[in-house]
Write a structure and sequence with these properties.
The chain has one domain (3-121): Archaeosine Trna-guanine Transglycosylase, Chain: A, domain 4, CATH 2.30.130. Helices cover 13% and strands 46% of the residues. It is built from 1 helix and 8 strands; from the N terminus they run E-H-E-E-E-E-E-E-E. Strands 1, 2, 3, 4, 5, 6, 7 and 8 form an 8-stranded mixed sheet that branches. A hairpin with a 2-residue loop joins strand 3 and strand 4 (54-71). It is globular and about 35 Å long.
């Protein structure tokens, strides 16, 4: 089951820097801390991201890490113990923006395949 999350404005610059570092490294993973894990979420599902009032892209879930902690190799930030979604950077797809207000937590996606127009991949700049 696909979900939607919001990248807070306060985290946007870190997310952009992480994406650039992953590009330079030729690949890697994105991590998303999530409180309660959606019961239907599994590897292969999409995580759509809202940023600045629009859904701008998605990545595909590789796995879920439960009750773990780590240090981000890009920002040096020490992430607290919690649940994290792991997504391969090469799975990232930019989409034609879809208007949506940001929110806390996550929501199940209600997008239909015809709603999603892919306009780029992980190596492309934000459209």
């Amino acid at each position: 089951m696909d979900i939607v999350v919001t990248t807070p404005k306060s985290a946007s610059s870190d997310a952009a820097q992480e994406a650039e570092n992953v590009k330079k490294a030729g690949g890697g993973s994105y991590y998303r801390r999530i409180g309660t894990i959606p019961k239907d979420l599994q590897a292969g599902d999409k995580v759509f991201y809202v940023e600045d009032g629009f859904v701008r892209g998605y990545a595909v879930v590789q796995c879920v890490l439960i009750d773990t902690r780590f240090i981000c190799s890009t920002t040096g930030k020490r992430w607290p113990q919690g649940n994290y979604l792991v997504m391969s950077a090469v799975s990232w797809r930019w989409i034609k923006p879809i208007e949506m207000k940001g929110f806390q937590g996550w929501r199940y996606s209600k997008f239909k395949p015809e709603d999603i127009a892919v306009v780029g991949n992980w190596l492309d700049s934000k459209p």
